[in-house]
Amino acid sequence: MSxxxxxxxxxxxxxxxxxxxxxxxxxxxxxxxxxxxGHVLVxxxxxxxxxxxLDQDTAGALMMHLSKITKAVAQAFPNDGLSIWHSIGLAxxxxxxxxxxxxxxxxxNDDVLSVYPSAPVLPERxxxxxxxxxxxxxxxVK
Length: 142
Ligand SMILES: [Zn+2]
Fold this sequence. Notes:
Blueprint: H1 6-11, E1 19-22, E2 26-30, E3 40-44, H2 56-76, E4 82-85, E5 101-105, H3 125-136
């Protein structure tokens, strides 16, 4: 654990948080920023930077709780949909280097996330197949 990680401090009870749920492997709490009410973070208790470092048990627990928290947020707060996101690294504007999923209620035209600044390229199928092969060659499946 990192002594300067705010999320580890929340896990250890050293920093305040409005906790939604906690178990052996995960914890969920209300984000300080409530652009739309109901913004929650779901994180592993292990200090890891991002999904690339997840072990199988923690990954399973995290996805299960992400599903349950999202269902509860959707029922509890006004929304016309929800966004779930996890940023990795500087280019993605990751602010806390401890893996966290945002669960964020969405309202019509709230402009919370705009994914593409302009129309994306739509490559031919053979290029997509090549990308799939490149990724498959690096995939570790047990
Ligand atoms: Zn941490």
